[in-house]
Design brief:
CATH class of the largest domain: Alpha Beta
Largest sheet: 6 strands, mixed
Order of helices and strands: HEEHEHEHHHEEHEEEEE
Helix content: 10-25%
Strand order of the largest sheet: 5-6-7-8-10-9
Number of strands: 11
Number of helices: 7
CATH topology of the largest domain: Purple Acid Phosphatase, chain A, domain 2
Number of domains: 2
Distance between the termini: 65 Å
Shape: globular
Strand content: 15-25%
Length: 297
């Protein structure tokens, strides 16, 4: 039979376990910075050609764990990987309305412009870059303030656009899809996007060069054409809370199918970044912030 002291000890132990886990998820893990590496050869990739991709996603600058100084640290850590291409997968701003004390867009864009690569730095936008831009939501059209800040800093934003690059691995098509959730519903229903996959693919000539496509939300991968060698996405934050590789909540209609990591389906490859910042709740558990390095070939 349990006495009062035993009950109190048990309750104290449970309290410390819960509060300790909460402190870890709210303070320690979101401030970490991991390098996650993948090595793969997608279908259609030229034999013997190598390319190093650095991927940064979901920075959510201005959120609790991503002040401007953190952006500078991320830039330095990414440059140290010596990538051929650095790709920014959207959601640059915090997942809330802007505060007066948030870093100016021009300031964090200037920091990102310090990214160093052999073949360039390119970006797409995420849903929060649209949702928290009141003029854009009112007009139901761009350009967004985030996109303009990046372009002014010299970082091209690919929105339903494909460009042909002469990369370290030879000719390469890099495509960026418009955000799939760009506009919040005015009354009811689901957000709708400006994504135009068919129009983006139509810009790619059939010259045999491999195609890398950036899409903020990974759900588009379910209907990605075979012509695309590799799809890169963010948005999910890996669920932001993961237990043994499973997330209870994933902002995707496919649940954990495209929640995180390297996914291969029908010979097609997708890599979903866990991102840097946090959305809604400022916690991470089992999925620390990450810079992704992908070595192709």
């Amino acid at each position: 039979m349990l006495d009062r002291r035993s009950v109190l000890r048990t309750l104290a132990g449970l309290f410390l376990a819960v509060t300790g886990t909460g402190a870890y998820a709210a303070i320690w893990e979101p401030g970490r910075q991991a390098i996650t590496r993948y090595r793969l050869t997608p279908r259609g990739w030229p034999e013997g050609r190598r390319l190093r991709l650095a991927v940064l996603s979901d920075l959510h600058i201005g959120s609790l764990h991503v002040p401007l100084a953190r952006v500078s640290e991320l830039v330095a850590a990414t440059n140290a990987l010596k990538p051929d291409l650095t790709l920014l997968l959207g959601d640059f701003v915090a997942s809330r309305r802007r505060f007066a004390l948030d870093p100016a867009m021009a300031d964090w864009a200037a920091e990102l412009a310090r990214l160093e690569t052999r073949d360039g730095v390119f970006a797409i936008l995420g849903n929060h870059d649209w949702w928290h831009d009141e003029p854009t939501q009112a007009l139901r059209a761009g350009p967004t303030q985030v996109g303009q800040a990046l372009e002014r800093a010299g970082i091209p934003v690919l929105e339903n656009r494909a460009v042909r690059l002469s990369s370290q691995a030879g000719p390469l098509w890099l495509a960026g899809l418009g955000d799939q959730l760009a506009f919040l519903p005015r009354l009811r229903g689901r957000p709708h996007g400006i994504d135009d996959l068919a129009g983006t693919m139509a810009q790619i000539t059939d010259d045999g060069a491999p195609v890398i496509l950036m899409a903020h939300e990974p759900d588009i991968f379910a209907r990605m054409p075979e012509r695309v060698s590799l799809t890169l996405s963010g948005h999910t934050h890996g669920g932001q809370v993961r237990f043994l590789g499973w997330a209870p909540i994933v902002p995707s209609r496919y649940g954990n199918r495209y929640a995180y990591g390297h996914v291969r389906e029908d010979g097609r490859d997708l890599v979903v970044s866990g991102g840097i910042g946090t959305s809604q709740l400022p916690i991470r558990f089992g999925i620390p912030p990450e810079i992704v390095l992908i070595e192709l070939g």
